[in-house]
Design brief:
The chain has about 210 residues and is mostly helical. The chain is built from nine helices and no strands. The protein has a domain at about 65-205: Tetracycline Repressor, domain 2 (Orthogonal Bundle), CATH 1.10.357.
């Protein structure tokens, strides 16, 4: 039987849906166990398909992890960076991005484990490259906002913007680690505003503009 445009479209949509469901399953499972111990069989069980069906959509585990890393990168752009872009004042943008990032992690606690796990792997696999590029882009976004804040005179002109960006990212990582140690990842949303307030105080411009 010849395929029709409609049947081809439906098949493509089913493939996209299955790929999306698989990525969501991986992200969820990474919140329950060490990503390095996650097998394709466990992922297939979570999705509700056979391993053979899983490999119809992802040729191998590396391609699946690459897709997951790409999803994480996309989510950071749409859900975190876009929040910052809604604010004209740099200090407000930095705060909004910080809180949005923490909220994203609270909803997807497997993300930090997944990213750290990929970064620790030897070699330079596609997923690892995507995560490294995403983190580099994230740091550049922070540095750009810090420079904008200096221009707007809401951030001290004497700060080391590169170091301030490292501190910003480190504050997020520290919150995540502490929450994981305490076994309560949801607590990070409660702590985040207080932590950012301390960070903000360290970079804020004084009343006389220095």
């Amino acid at each position: 039987m010849a395929t029709t445009p409609d049947s081809t479209k439906r098949a493509y949509q089913r493939t996209e849906q299955r790929q999306s469901a698989t990525i969501e399953a991986v992200v969820h499972l990474c919140g329950e166990q060490d990503p390095s111990t996650l097998t394709t069989n466990r992922i297939a069980q979570k999705v509700g398909v056979s391993q053979g069906a899983l490999f119809k959509h992802f040729p191998n585990k590396s391609s699946l992890w690459e897709s997951v890393a790409g999803w994480v990168a996309g989510q950071l752009t749409t859900r975190v960076f876009s929040v910052a872009d809604q604010h004209e004042e740099a200090d407000k943008a930095l705060e909004a991005m910080f809180l949005a990032h923490i909220g994203f992690i609270a909803r997807h606690p497997g993300i930090p484990r997944l990213m750290l796990g990929e970064l620790q792997k030897p070699g330079n696999q596609p997923a690892k490259r995507i995560i490294r590029q995403t983190l580099a882009f994230y740091r550049q976004k922070i540095v750009a906002l810090l420079h904008l804040g200096i221009e707007q005179k809401c951030i001290s002109p004497t700060i080391d913007t590169e170091a301030a960006a490292v501190l910003y990212i480190g504050a997020i990582q520290g919150l995540v680690v502490q929450a994981m140690v305490g076994g309560d990842i949801m607590s990070i949303e409660e702590s985040a505003p207080r932590i950012f307030k301390l960070y903000s105080a360290s970079i804020r411009a004084s009343d006389d503009g220095e």
